[in-house]
Protein 1
Amino acid sequence: MLPGLLIGLWAQMKLHSAYGKYSQVPVESGMTGAEAARRILDQAGLNDMPIEEVEGQLSDHYDPTKRALFLSSDIYSGRSIASVGVAAHEAGHALQHQASWGLFNLRMALVPATQFASMAWMGVFLLGFVLHIIPHFILIAVAIFSVMTLFQLVTLPVEYDASARAKQQLFRLGLVHESERAGVSKVLDAAALTYVAALVNSVLQLLYYISAARNNRS
């Protein structure tokens, strides 16, 4: 589990470093993140989709159940390369939903099972040790982490595709200039690394419990 933890910390450091740098670099268009996202959504015919401001840092997300974008204050009103890039990424998820993209739909379908697995994990962990049913606990752990690993596996291409759509729309609509391409890419690529780290961590934990289950049988 330690390699997964270290990779996760490294990915977070890369993200905060890139975001910290490019959140201080003004975008030449002077647009806010919310304005950039609005342009992308309107161009796609999603004129009625709301864009709301939420608290927190990098708490930005697209909610497919509400069909709405939620942007943190720094992104919503920020006029930086980072703000515009992150906002466009979330708009990219809305475009995936609009297109009924297969992997996006699969990810949505996996959300309930993944939420249950993540909540059940700690309870199963404690119950296994309290009741001394370690063999059964290990098998349940394998099942839980299989669900969570599948979710992370599907999430990775969904996030990369949202970033690709964001870059395409930003440049196609002239919201950022060619000289700003590197900055946008660095912010979005650093954000994607956090999903890579989450997948690696989940795979390593799954392999650990599979190995433990095999050892328990022998």
Protein 2
Amino acid sequence: MIVHNAARLAGWLALATLVMLAGPVLTLAVGNVSMRGDWSRATHRATGLAPDPAMHPEAVVQAYASRTFGWRGAFAVHTWIAAKPAHADRYTRYEVIGWRAGAGSGLSVSDTHSPDAEWYGAAPRLIDDLRGADAEAVIAKLSKAVANYPHVRYSAWPGPNSNTFVAYLGRAIPELRLTLPSLAIGKDYLPAGEWLAPAPSGTGYQFSAGGLFGVTAAYDEGLEINLFGLVTGIDFRHPGVKIPGIGTMPGHG
């Protein structure tokens, strides 16, 4: 009986995994992700989503998401935070970059790159935009939160990765009011020994087993089910269905 039940459970898990892979396969099939090109020649052009500091002296904090390079883009996005204090002449980007990780986390804090640049040829999408006093409240906590990022290693799957970092900032700084896209694989990864945490938006909670299995229930995120890092669910606030590889339909993210 035990063997039979275990086999049945394994069968259901295999079926669920195949269903959840349908979205990434469709994304590849319709050409939403390029399988060609050389990453070293991919563009990082500014896209005009970030306000020009010369024209907008107020504090600005923005979060971006962009499809990852190559076939991985069928599954996931890369996310980062850009911030500019009031009257500053440039933005600082806060992100984790996998190819810089080596034996470490890959944490990058830089003011030399465009805050809204393409990510290896893929145009970013603005997922959070705070101005003035709202942005200043975030900036006041940002440096300390970044310094306290707990992960000293990088793993593209299931985490900790770039999305784990941005999700951590959302939890550490509730003023961000950050809702990450369902395609942000790694956002559900929690430190070893932690099973329950606030959702990145701070409007609910999530259970996660190493980023491989989990459930999130929150006002902003809605209901999300994570299976091997792929997320499906329902967005109640902005009605839609979350599909792995595609994002939220209707809409995206």
